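Q: Hi! First time doing this. I have a protein sequence and I read that you can turn it into a structure. Is that right? Here it is:
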Amino acid sequence: MRKLLFVFCILTITGCSWLYPSIMLKAPRNYPYAKLNDSISNIDYKISINDVITLRLYSQDGFRLIDYSSIIDNNSGGLNVTTTTATDYTVDPDGTIRFPVLGRIYLNGYTIREATQMLEQKFSQYYIKPFIILTVTNRRVIVFPGDPGAARVVPLTNNNTTLIEVLANMGGLTTNGKAKQIKLIRGNPNKPDIYLIDLSKIDDIKEAYTIMQEGDIVYVTPQRQIVSDAINKVTPTINALSVVISLFVTVALIKSAKL
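A: Yes, that's right. Below is the predicted 3D structure, encoded as structure tokens:
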């Protein structure tokens, strides 16, 4: 019994890396997490590099759809326009998009509203009361809900998708997920901001409405059941040893019977 207790003590001390080699994004004790304040959690979605932008341009405050990708100058001081569907553009690594007529426009870091207003102002040089509908179509976040094999890439279909909506899209936390230890990893991969969010108490519900940004990683820390997991891990080895020992004892008894 003492030996068994000793084995479990050793497993408790060293078992984390041995029992849970698949656990990711571990943080040392007293890790200096970034502070999630209102200015960060409630900020509107901002356009970033590699975003795919869908742009619809109308004149007369939305009366008519303009295909500015097929504009023809008829050399008479006017522009011929036709109606068509939306056009997609990708934000280049320098944060710009090259639009017909306008040329390169810097959009990295703009909110959808800011980019829409700025583009409407620029297009007003060429069209009467331009009206723009701007959407980002390839936004997504990566979510690890607490169990191995349950991670998923979740698309952000709305401009202001919140953390609680993303978790709900995943079906909520898994049985092994710790609601009090949810890591939100955001920003430059070389030096990201890492926030620790506690959703185990109703008092912290405000953090659940943190608006997701493109490329966010939501990692729910898994619950560790060290004793039961250690037993499950060791049981196959013990069973194998039992078979070997039984075989050894059987052989020994047969030999002694022959003598």
